[in-house]
Each structure stands twice: as C-alpha cells, then as structure tokens.
C-alpha cells in the first residue's frame, strides 16, 4: 500500500496537490463512479431518479474539476482512490452531499412524499364518511330523460344541490327551480344570486361543480355529466363532489361508460351504487348521404365546426345564398349564446340555420332537426397538456349528434351527417364504436398541500412546487393527477410580483383564456395592483378597459370585446375571493351586461363584420375548407411531436441559473405564442430591472449577500 503523507494546508493548496493525481485519471474515476449500477441504485434509494442523478453528477464533476477550493475530505478520498487506497464507491457520501445542496428536495423527500400521498382521497372528506349515502346512477344517452328524473328528486327534496359542468346549466336549473316554486340560489365562480330578499341562503342551490360545498348537509345532490370525472383538466371537481358531498341521496347523471369506475370508487367508501338505465326518447339516424353543398341546407340544420375560421367562412357562404344563420361558439358570453339560441328556436324568426362549435353539446336547448359535421377533426389537449388534432371521440360525437331531434323540440326525429361524403364513413365508424370506459378519476393538489411543500422548500417558485408535487405524488389505479399547465402558466406569469403563497395560489386558479393576450396581461395587472394594496375600483377598471367601448367594426374588434368580457369575468371571480380589493362587483356586473349587449349586436351583424375584415385583409378565409383539415392535422401532429421532443429535452435540463434568465426565457416564449404583446414585455422588463436594482440596494445596505436558491443549479447545464 502506498502511504501518502498529508499536511494541513488551505483548501486551495490541497486542490493544487490533486494535480499529483492526473486530471485524466480523475475523470476516469468519476466516469467509473457514474456508470456503476450499484451507485445509480443507491442514488434512487435517496430520491435521485435517472434525470436527477445525471444532473447531480454533471454538477458534481464540474465542482471537482473546476473548483479552486475543493473540500478537504473530497481531496483526501480522491487521492486515496488514485493510489488504490480506497474504492470508487467511497465517493458516494460526498456526491450525495453535493446533490442535496443543488436539490434541496432530497433533504425532505420523506416528508414531501407523505404530503403528496393521494392514495386514499375518500379520507379527505370526514363529514361525508360519517353518513351512509345512497348513490343512484342515471345512465343513458343524450335526450333520454336521465337528468329530468334526477332533477325531479331535487325539486321534491327538503334541501338539495345541483352541480353542473357549465354556468349555463347552473343558470337553467336555477331558473327552473324558482319557476317550479322551489326557492333556489345560484353559485358560480363569478356570480352569487340569493332569491330571499334579506340575503339568507335557501335550502336549494344550483352551482357549477367546482363551487359545491362539501361541508353543507343536503337531502339530495345531483352531479351532472359524471363521466367528466376523467377530464384531464377539470376531472378533480367531479371527484371532489362524488367523494365529498354530504347528501343522503346522490344522483349521478351521465354516460354508461362511467358506471364501473363510479362503482369501484364507491366500493372504497362502503357505498353501493343503484343504476337506472334510460333509452333515448326520440329516434336519431345517420344519413347515407352527405350534405355536399350548402345549397342543400334546410330549416332546422345545424352545421358543427371546430374552428372559428370555419364558422366565419360558412356564415359568409350561407349569406350569399340568401339564408340567415345564428352563430354560437365557446368564447361568446352566456347572454349572447342564449340570444342566438332563442333566435334560432323562434319559429317566427327568418333564421333557420345554426352555425356552432361543440359548445352546443351541453347547456343549450336547441330545436335542431339535422346535425352536419363540417369536419371530424378537433384540436384537443391530452393528459400531458400537449395540443393535438385528432378525430372526435365517440363520446364527443354522440354528445353533439344527440342535440338533433330532442324530445322538447319541434322535431321529433333527429338526423346526423357530414359536409363531405368522404367523412361519412368515418362518422359512422365513430358512432358505432362503444364509448371508452372511464378508467380513472382526476385529483388536484390543494392550497394546504402546496403550503406544506413550500414550508419545506421555502425558496422554490410556485410553478416548481407544482412540478415537484406531481413528481412526488402517489396515486392508486383509480386516480390520476390532473394536468396543471394552466395553473403553472399563471404562476410563471405573476412570479415576479410579491404575493403571499396563498394569494398567489388563488390568482393561479382563476380561469383565464391563455390565447387572449389582454386577459393574460389583466391577470398580471390585477395581481400587481393587489400587491400594492391598491383596491381595483369601478372607476379604475373603467379606465383600464377604456370604457365606453364602441360597437365592433370588424371581426378583430369583436374578438377584442370578447376578451374584455373575459376580463370582467376575471374581476368578478376574484371579487368573491378578495372582496376588499375587488369591491365593486355589482357595478362591474352591470357593466358586463351592457358589454354583452354590444357583443350581441356584433354577432347579429357578423357577416357584415366578416366582409369588412376580408376587405381590410384582417381575415383570410381561403383554403380553410374541411378538405384541407387532413393536411392541417398532419402538419400540427408534426409540430406537436417536435414540441414534445423540445419539452422532454427541457425537462432533462437543470433549472435556470437565475430568476432573471428564467423571466427572459418565459417572456420570449409568451411573445412567440402571442400571449404577450411586445409593449407589455418591455413594461415587464422595465419593472423587473427596477425590482432587481432595488433588491441590490437593499442587499448592499444590509451588508448581506443573499444567495438565490437556483444559483447552484446552474452547474448541471455547464457541461
């Protein structure tokens, strides 16, 4: 054995002595350490998966090869390994120590695993577990009367709650209940309506599913569209309602595809499920011929498109033929949708054709004879949050097709076909398939869980806390963690604004349309005002949206007005969470109703707006026929694959070196995606630089050197 004499010297001198062990030899030692399966398995036991192990090793190697002040103990063990006085595995304690420095999560991984353990969701609702609930599943296709029977039980109960997927449905039950002499309140994310003059709550409430109370006792609860428990983004709300509602009877309405999943979930709570099956009340048939030409349209036809541009294009072509059409799509305000539906349903109105997106699938009562699919390709977001364009699913096709020939309409038989003959075979194939069974129910981390994560990782951003939570979360086969890309988008958008974690969490749960730059910038502005403790008053908001607003002169103006309506929705949503800072909800609601009227006028004259937009070259409707959708699909699939590769590569890299570089990267991406305007970007950069300058002054004055939690994480990227 070779004995190496060591003398006590400074770390720098020790680092220079390491040169006695050749640099190439040290690299070989480190590479051997990295490749040993035993080391990788040992790393996994300490929470280092393949990605983290690789990042930690790159940083550890750079530290050893480039550091001018190598720790004494590492210096000693490396010399021993060089002279065969120690084994390469003896490096692991030092490697693990370094890994914990750059990944603080490793220090508390056991606690984090306990916090993010989502394997027994029924236990989250002790009030519901304390009673024996009766579960009745009303199963059937659209227009089968399943919801009607459930609502009758709701009306006859001493107390009840209706949980719907849309504001329109919540409004419908609210109105029907009060019309039937059953006093009922309304609760949605943006609205609270009490019917008793003194404001006292009634025994019945109609709400959107996210807003239901899991602590209030009811005699009867109705959960509509229960199959949406598998929705990648919103499924958690149905899971929460199903497991948590304190009702003696819970009536579920939905597709038969959800029966097995619901039965399995209720088995874990010790509750049995009674299934009541319903058949469609009126017949519906798939035609053997396609429409082929808009000349073949007849009263009661509804053309379903999956893009606004297709709606604009078809609307113009219908106008050229001397016909009048109503228009319904997702981003229209509820009042405008109802106005257009009323126009189409009115037998005395000359409008006999409806143009719509799949927004008609729920929440609107329409008198449709024939559904015509303009295309069968629809943009979707998968469970990973990735955008895809795929043929519609059987469930979607049945939901839309079922709007034809409804029992309450003037047409007692429904028909379904396609615009193009070549799509007809695919439509028949889609409709003939069984609906895919629901395999798992969605879950979502609560604010309390994220706060506990933040306690252990105080220097971690909210967006990164969500990533870590999802990585550590444990679910059994009945559940999945919902996609949280929208939440993370908002978290990154307002990251530089000083807010408490709970307030930041609430802002990030606010529903916004990411495709609208003005809506995104408004969330940012609202958060900024809140952080300054400056109430967002009616006068302030009027100035902000530049009220009064003019009627739309073209399609772009109409889209801008829709964005302003969404901003007012955002204000109202926040006003019920932060009443002191958003004090003028009543005035804003009146303003929103006025804006809804302006938008309704614009939609009534949509063809004129389209003509003007085309003449001003603001709208290009050429080449957007359904026949070109296949090419579009292939193109976007290729883009999606490239985006997936980029995202995967991004996940394998370490975190940004500093908050500044992260902000610039995020800002560039938002501008490229059209979610931020260049002017807003310049404003944000100016604010951020001002903030950094101020923080620098504070550090200088206090004589302390604050070390950002991410500075050490720069090292894995330096290889």
From TrEMBL:
Its cofactor is Mn(2+); Mg(2+). GO terms for molecular function: ATP binding; hydrolase activity; RNA helicase activity. Residues 708-719 have a biased composition (Basic residues). SUPFAM superfamilies: P-loop containing nucleoside triphosphate hydrolases. GO terms for cellular component: mitochondrial degradosome. Keywords: ATP-binding, Helicase, Hydrolase, Mitochondrion, Nucleotide-binding, Transit peptide. It is found in: Mitochondrion. It catalyses: ATP + H2O = ADP + phosphate + H(+). Residues 286-451 form the Helicase C-terminal domain. Residues 690-719 are annotated as: Disordered. It is an enzyme of class 3 (hydrolase). It comes from the Eukaryota. Its EC number is 3.6.4.13. GO terms for biological process: mitochondrial RNA 3'-end processing. Belongs to the helicase family. This is ATP-dependent RNA helicase SUPV3L1, mitochondrial. The lineage of its organism: Eukaryota, Metazoa, Chordata, Craniata, Vertebrata. The gene is Supv3l1.
């Amino acid at each position: 054995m070779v004995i190496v004499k060591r003398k006590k010297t400074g770390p720098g001198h020790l680092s220079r002595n390491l040169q006695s062990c050749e640099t190439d030899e040290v690299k070989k030692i480190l590479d051997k350490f990295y490749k040993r399966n035993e080391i990788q398995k040992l790393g996994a036991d300490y929470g280092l998966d393949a990605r983290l192990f690789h990042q930690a090793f790159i940083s550890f190697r750079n530290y050893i090869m480039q550091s001018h002040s190598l720790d004494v103990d590492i210096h000693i063990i490396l010399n021993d390994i060089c002279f065969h006085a120690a084994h390469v595995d003896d490096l692991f304690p030092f490697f693990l120590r370094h890994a914990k420095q750059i990944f603080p999560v490793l220090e508390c991984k056991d606690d984090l695993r306990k916090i993010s353990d989502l394997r027994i969701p029924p236990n989250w609702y002790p009030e519901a577990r304390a009673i024996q609930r009766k579960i009745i599943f009303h199963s059937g296709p659209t227009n089968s009367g399943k919801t009607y029977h459930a609502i009758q039980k709701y009306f006859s109960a001493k107390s009840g709650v209706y949980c719907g997927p849309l504001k329109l449905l919540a409004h419908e039950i609210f109105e029907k209940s009060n019309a039937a002499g059953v006093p009922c309140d309304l609760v949605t994310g943006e609205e609270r309506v009490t019917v008793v003059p003194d404001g006292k709550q009634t025994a019945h409430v109609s709400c959107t599913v996210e807003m239901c109370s899991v602590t209030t006792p009811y005699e009867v609860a109705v959960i509509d569209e229960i199959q949406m428990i598998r929705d990648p983004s919103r499924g958690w709300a149905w899971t929460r309602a199903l497991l948590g509602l304190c009702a003696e009877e819970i009536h579920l309405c939905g597709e038969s595809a959800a029966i097995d999943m619901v039965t399995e979930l209720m088995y874990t709570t010790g509750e049995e499920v009674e299934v009541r099956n319903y058949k469609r009340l009126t017949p519906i048939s798939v035609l053997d011929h396609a429409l082929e030409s808009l000349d073949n349209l007849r009263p009661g036809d509804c053309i379903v498109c999956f893009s606004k541009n297709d709606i604009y294009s078809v609307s113009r072509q219908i106008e050229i033929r001397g016909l009048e059409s109503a228009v319904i799509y997702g981003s229209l305000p509820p009042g405008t949708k109802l106005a257009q539906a009323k126009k189409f349903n009115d037998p005395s109105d000359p409008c006999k054709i409806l143009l719509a997106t799949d927004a008609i699938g729920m929440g609107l009562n329409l008198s449709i004879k024939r559904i015509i699919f303009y295309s069968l390709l629809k943009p979707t977001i998968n469970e990973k949050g990735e955008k895809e364009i795929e043929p519609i699913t059987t469930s979607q096709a049945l939901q839309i097709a079922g709007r034809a020939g409804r029992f309450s309409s003037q047409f007692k038989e429904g028909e379904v076909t396609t615009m193009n003959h070549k799509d007809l075979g695919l439509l028949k194939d889609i409709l003939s398939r069984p609906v895919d069974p629901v395999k798992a129910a969605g879950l979502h981390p609560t604010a309390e869980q994220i706060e506990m994560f933040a306690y252990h990782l105080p220097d971690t951003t909210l967006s990164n806390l969500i990533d870590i939570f999802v990585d550590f979360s444990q679910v059994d086969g009945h559940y999945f963690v919902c996609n949280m890309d929208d939440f993370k988008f908002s978290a990154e958008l307002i990251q530089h604004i000083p807010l408490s974690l709970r307030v930041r969490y609430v802002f990030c749960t606010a529903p916004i349309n990411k495709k609208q730059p003005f809506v995104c910038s408004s969330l940012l502005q609202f958060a900024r005002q809140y952080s300054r403790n400056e109430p967002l008053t009616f006068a302030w908001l009027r100035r902000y949206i530049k009220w009064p607003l003019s009627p739309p002169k073209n399609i772009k103006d109409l889209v801008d007005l829709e964005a302003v309506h969404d901003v007012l929705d955002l204000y109202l949503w926040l006003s019920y969470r932060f009443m002191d800072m958003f004090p003028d909800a009543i005035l804003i609601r009146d303003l929103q109703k006025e804006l809804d009227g302006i938008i309704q006028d614009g939609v009534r004259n949509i063809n004129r707006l389209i003509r003007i937009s085309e003449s001003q070259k603001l709208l290009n409707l050429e080449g957007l026929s359904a026949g070109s959708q296949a090419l579009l699909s292939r193109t976007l699939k290729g883009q999606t694959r490239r985006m997936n590769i980029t995202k995967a590569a991004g996940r394998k890299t370490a975190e940004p070196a500093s908050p500044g570089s992260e902000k610039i990267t995020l800002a560039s991406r938002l501008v490229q995606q059209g979610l931020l305007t260049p002017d807003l970007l310049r404003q944000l950069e100016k604010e951020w630089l001002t903030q950094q300058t101020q923080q620098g002054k504070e550090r200088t004055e206090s004589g302390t050197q604050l070390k950002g939690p991410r500075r050490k994480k720069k090292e894995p990227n330096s290889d």
